[in-house]
Fold these 3 entries.
Entry 1:
Amino acid sequence: MQGDTHYSQIIDSEEARRAQAAADEAPSLPASQIDQTRFYITQHWDRYSPKDHLTWKTLYERRIQTLRQQASNVFLSGFDAFNLPKDHVPRLSEVNKVLQGKTGWQSRAVPGYLPPKAFFACLAKREFPTTITIRPLEKLDYLPEPDIFHDVYGHVPLHADPVFADFLQTYGKAALQCDDPTHVKRLGRLFWFTVEFGLVKEDGRLKIYGSGLMSSIGESQYSLESDVPERRPFDLEQVCETDFKIDHYQPIYYVLESFEQLRDAMMDYAEKVLNEPVATGR
């Protein structure tokens, strides 16, 4: 949790401290003993300050200017279904009403960073660990960790799509059960180059769908228009063998032909990792 009093007031509670402790314990437990519900906390919406709401409003207005030209149609369909508020931080309860009817996914408030195994346990249950703090107004352009703008504005719209929803749950199941360090590393790369920084072909041109691109005005334009990065056709094996760095714009992006391609490739890989068929659904 952040030490800044203003920044942490949203999660300054015994409930949040217990949840974070439970999440931090998860890596030491067998997958079957992890109870992901212990990581979740209440979103005390009344604790957001006027400055927090102004931060959301400012980020929303800046990003929406180019979002409809850059973003995947699938992402935009989910984005429009949520009708996210323009002038204040969203309530997860309202987001979840839409998700429940679309795919059964839910956004669950968490106190901060979850270790990978805890994160995967949530995905395996169709629950997305959602950071409920929001970046300070003075740090609009860069934050090293996720916040509610990154998670809700950048991630959640794709969770309303049945195909992407199945992919993400399958990913969570495979990553949760996997103990092989090689596969764990490969799965981390897959998440990075798809969920965070993926591109897709739609309407005869490139569009963004990765949340890292959705929440970055600068890199979204760079990923689509710059001559510097390499854009490779999506191939799961190649993706899983590609290293990445987190401290600069990406030199490589992988381009999907469709989200069905991603789902089907993940299903095949999960069966190889787990040595059994993988069931998805609510």
Note: Residues 50-70 form the longest helix (21 residues).
Entry 2:
Amino acid sequence: MIVNEFGKRITSQDLNVQLKSVYKWNLNLRNLSESDAHSTLNKVSNKIRNIKNSSLAHHAERNPQYMEALLVSQVLETWLDERREMLAERTLSPGETKKREKYVKSMKKVEGDFDKRYGKRGKDVMYATATKMAKKKSVEEALDLLRGVLLGRTQLNEGEVDQASAIVAARGMVDEIQKMVEKISAMVNEELPPLMDTIRDRVGADQASAFGAAATQTLTPLLDAVKAAREGMDGAARTVAGEAPAPMATGAGADIGAGAAPGADLGADAGADMMGAETPVPDAGTDSGVEIPRADDMATSDAAAGGTAELGRGKRA
């Protein structure tokens, strides 16, 4: 059951807030599994049915237990409907996947606007927004969606944001391993040579040579192992995001520590046309005439003011 009020879709999160307000408790939707939701809904439905079949049926609306159970059932039914919608929504095509990564890269400029409006979930909402933008047929439609989300007029449901949260977390692990790659690479290529010179000048040439050989023998396999781990985690993260794993770099031409910089977007091939034959997606601040809008530059209405926004409010995209 999807609940609507005056043309606005009411989400499971909205109903859960109401449950907390009226009965001083709510459901843990973030950690709720589908099987648990169905199990709890069956128990609550049985309770509602028993009250309806009892002598209290004529006064059910005045029975706190009945009204509480009814609201809980609405939360669970709406949550399950949202989950079904999320799973039924088609996956991105390869071209749309590239569009999403291009949008994510361009939207770094407005990441602070997402944090200001959506608090600690700002990055997740930003990524979920980029996913929906990638499915739009034109840049103008995509930017209209972005404006709506930044101003709180366009709804993203909990399922969409939770899915984006998982993707962001997976990508974050790749970024952390990439930092290890760059750190070890810097040891081998930047820190070791001058250190050997220092040892040679202050201790002796033989000691410098011995230290350099031992350090190289230790750090080189470590670097190779961490790079392999990065490639493996990159493929795993791409799978979570619905992308094909990138081919692993091979051959002598691969530089030590080479690869995407920390925070680089998965699926973004350096120097490649991210859009193929599709409408190009402009980077923020380019001379294309179309820029990613800042929230402060938009019409400052009810939504443009400070404070965090709840997910699931406003017009559904």
Note: The CA atoms of residues 207 and 213 lie 10 Å apart.
Entry 3:
Amino acid sequence: MPRENDVDMRLAARWIFCAVFAIAAAAFAVTTSFAQSAADKYPERPIKIIVPFAPGGSTDILARVIAQKMLENWGQQVVVETRPGAATVIGTGAAAQAAPDGYTLVIVVSNHATNPSLNDKMPYDALKDFEFISLLGKAPMVPYVNPKFPPQNLKELVAHGKANAVPFGSAGLASMTHLLAERFKADNDIKLMQHVVYKGGTPALNDVLGGQIPMTFGTVTQALPQYQGKLVRALGVSAEKRHHAMPDVPTFREQGFDIVVTEWYGLLAPAGTPKPIVAKLNAEMRRILALPLGERVAAIDLEPSTPEELRDFIKKEIDVWGPMIKQLGIKPQ
């Protein structure tokens, strides 16, 4: 038979376990209640959306449209801050280090998935250091050229690029616009096309307009007004089918080049941002992306997601483009 002391010890251990469990449950309930209360009051002050590119590009345009709609709905100022540099690492890193309270957000693009393969010493982890709010949309890409540039289509670009030096711009090192160009070069053995690194698509486009470089690879949105005003020409579009914003421009595939690639946009917050605030932001993105947002944003295929879907999508992009970057021989500059 068990001794009386053994019984007492078991009862004491059971009591301690129950007490610890009750305290933990109460703490969890208080924490959850606090987070939900913070979400109910959110936002109580201005929100900042970081754009890790120079002003004027498609990411900046999308951010400002979203910011305006958030202001109209919530009555709180939403400030868009452009922080270009280091292939989006500077701006995205600033967001990763911000307080996880929902008042600092960042719009990331393909660089978020390609940078880990390009940089051995990233100042943040692309997956662990962020909360994922929603995918915002996708956009195909276009080789935009100065009207004086001789090639009129992609086949002529290949021939011209094999005989002449062709400096070209993009949204930045290892951006999807850059990767499209490098893949096009590799597929067609064009060694004389050389990448000029810019801190965003807008500075590259400005140099095409000014004649400093003959061409740049950008999103459909990037140079849509300039294309419509005949200030640049479009040699192709990297979509499955012709894009509604420029229906006269044939796809890469129509011209005999089997390339379909899109840029994408996602909204993130620092890791540790309360889940109820993430959920509230996700619902707001779904509301906004269902609205008519104007011609410039209409060129982007708006596409919200759940936080989990965005995380899975970015993880897949990291897995897909990492080997491609090594295969293309892209190095930090």
Note: Confidence is low (pLDDT under 50) at residues 29-34.
